[in-house]
Please model this.
Amino acid sequence: MAHIQLNFYSQSMQRNEDVIIFLPTVSADDYLEGSDIHYGTKNAKYQVLYLLHGSYGDCTDWSRFTGVERYAQDKTLAVVMPSGENSNYLNMAYGENYETYLTEELPAFLTKIFPISKKREDTFIAGLSMGGFGSLHSALKKPELYGYVASLSGALDLQLLSNGTEAHTTKMSKSFRKAIFEDSNRITDSDADLLHLLENNIADKKELPRIFMACGTEDFIYPTNENFYKKAQEMGVAIEYLRAPGVHNWDFWDAHIKDVLDWLPCRHDLVIE
Amino acid sequence: MAFMQCNFFSPVLNFNTNINVFIPTPNSDEILNNKKSDYFQEGVKFQVLYLLHGAYGDYSDWLRLTSIEKYAQNHKIAVVMPSASNSFYQNMYKGSEYLTFMNEELPKFVQSIFPVSEKREDTFVAGLSMGGYGAVKLAFEKPEQFAACVSLSGAIDLISVAKQAREGEFASPFLWNSIFENPDNIEGTDADLFALAKKKIALGHKLPKVFQTVGTEDFIYEANVSAKEKMENIGVDLTYEEYPGIHDWDFWDTYIQRALDWLPLKNDSVEVD
Model:
């Protein structure tokens, strides 16, 4: 893997942004054991996974706390890890345009600089907690861009979180929450309501991305995931749902990001165009 | 500029290595000062400068100790900064194969990942001190790959510089017996740039153009004057300039700008697929 720390001026954010990127290149294992992978083939492109961190985190989290570089190398999959601050990857009412950055500028920018496929069937998005929400939100706002989406321990109901009184919901600074939403009492049925977005896509007869969810059965966010799954089922949305023992921590995400990669249609090679 | 720190496994070096890379992309200066920013388009490639560090240094030196990013942005040229330890950019007798890495593996790697032109007319190499030698060495070894090379305060006259260093006239970290099989007999080998130039000319190659500059108070000044005379006698297409200055980053930060003005730059992206 080439491990790339990218810093560039983002037009949609109006400031510099950091992104961590893995691009599959010859590894020490490939060198020692040989490899049939077409690294460096002219015009070959990588399948790509946009991988989102959770609240309180940034673009460095996934590479620091999991083995995702190793897992992605085994799949010959490029991984792009942006920073979303605590924005839920939304265009904030009083703040930065994270949704535009993540779903418009970043794919356009990266496919110009790197050999990354632009095809829907090769473009995936996943994340944990706030990033699980962000992944589904991005994929449901732009179903034409992402073929596959996965949420780990996703914060899938922002209204519930916003109204919550548990420690994990009240630790987030109130002023920051106020910056995200025009009115944090009216998230339901807005563009930040995933079930609402699902309904809209179905009504518009859009082709939905394939959806994978996993959640720990001891996680505080498990009931939210159960509820989302049940509601989506009632709408007739097919979701691959994995319930597994575990809580809201990196042990869970390190273990189950592997399930996400196994579920994705990875070609184990570059895409020769 | 997009700034990228990239870590990857090198099968030639047999270890992970770092490069810093700049790719011209729109920045705040272009917004604030209404400068040209239409060069970053789908399918573009950039002219590229491989920029080499000196003794005691690594891939981070140029970025940290000069404003190369700003100068390269103005010229719309990509910059690649690798690490060569204290190898004098040689395939070491006892050590790693830095020459093969620099001239074979690195360009292929860079071209496979980043949008840089593969054409000779768009490919340049520059360096300071040991890297000034390295720049001329890489360019003369592969005259078909580089249109021009730049030596700032370079140890181009390796034989006299090595003699000075080994006699303790200035401090140096070079393990001469590890770099060369016979450090007393460099003359006439491919490490002797004048012999290398003669050999390549005799083989019918068109040598890259050379820009050579040195500070008149530099301890390496005399060796540069002798190198200039030798290259002129051989018939190298040489531009030589000397300025007040010593062997330090003030000199290199100033005269890398002069070098960029001298190089045949298009000051724009160069290719659309």
Summary: The first helix of chain A runs from residue 28 to 33. Strands of chain A lie at 2-10, 15-23, 44-45, 47-52, 77-82, 123-128, 148-152, 210-216, 239-244, 271-272. The mean pLDDT of chain A is 94. Chain A touches chain B at residues 1-9, 11, 23, 25-28, 31, 39-40, 109, 112-115 (CB under 8 Å).
